[in-house]
Design a protein that fits this description.
Low-confidence stretches: 149-164, 166-184
Structural class: mainly alpha
Helix content: over 70%
Mean pLDDT: 76
Strand order of the largest sheet: 1-2
Largest sheet: 2 strands, antiparallel
Distance between the termini: 29 Å
Strand content: under 5%
Length: 243
């Protein structure tokens, strides 16, 4: 395991270059944290492999966001973050609607393939890519992603500098002044630009033009169910990015 000075040096270099190989080196160096925390919560109704996957994904996200110049050690920064996400996974798991075993099996493979793809390419695979990799339909991939509880638009995003928390809906539902009024407006704009073209259209039609899911489906030539699932996926993606 590398010493803290070397790790901080790599963190700074990664923030400058966004070199995936540097990120992966840091992830491998701190992977023991994911292992320890996953083992700590194992044996409580959720498989260790699932907990390890959740912890590993949280670790990767933490490495990408960590700034050593803020004066914190990475271990101090990442431990409560990973622990919190594992606890959220337990909460979501306990509330999830029981789905067919084949869906859960695909869900596990989706998480594995997504993690591997992300390590290699620095981005998450699309639903179409996942379907091709797993040899199944895009509909089954989408259904497997539903194994985790959808994010509510009432989900709270923490304010900064003592400001009161605000619901996610306050950030993305207003077409006129939300971007100007909300404190993390610039971050939201950046994350919206990262969405795929279809996802941007869904957000625009649903939250800026106020159209129903059925209306959006007709415009895009897809089913209302597809719009519903896409919307949930987008909201979860934005929430994770803003948090």
């Amino acid at each position: 395991m590398m010493d803290e000075n070397r790790a901080d040096e790599l963190f700074r270099k990664y923030r400058e270059t966004k070199d995936v190989s540097i990120r992966n080196e840091l992830v491998e160096n701190y992977l023991y944290i994911a292992e320890i925390l996953a083992k700590k919560f194992a044996g409580r109704g959720v498989e260790y492999d699932d907990l390890y996957q959740v912890a590993s994904e949280a670790l990767i996200a933490g490495v990408e966001k960590f700034n050593p110049d803020l004066g914190n050690r990475f271990t101090t920064y990442i431990t409560p973050t990973v622990t919190g996400l594992i606890k959220n996974y337990f909460r979501d798991y306990s509330r999830a609607v029981r789905l067919p075993r084949r869906v859960y099996a695909v869900a596990a493979r989706v998480r594995e393939e997504t993690a591997e793809f992300y390590k290699k390419h620095g981005v998450k695979p699309t639903v179409k890519q996942l379907a091709e990799m797993l040899g199944c339909s895009e509909e089954l991939v989408l259904e497997s992603m539903e194994c985790r509880t959808p994010v509510s638009l009432d989900a709270q995003i923490k304010g900064e500098n003592g400001e009161q928390d605000s619901p996610l809906s306050a950030v993305i539902s207003d077409g006129g002044t939300a971007f100007d009024d909300f404190e993390v407006a610039e971050s939201l704009k950046t994350e919206l630009k990262k969405l795929e073209p279809t996802e941007q259209k869904v957000i625009s039609l649903r939250y800026l033009q106020g159209k129903s899911q059925a209306e959006v489906g007709k415009i895009l030539g897809v089913s209302q169910m597809f719009v519903s699932r896409a919307e949930r996926k987008i909201v979860e993606k934005l929430k994770e990015a803003l948090l």
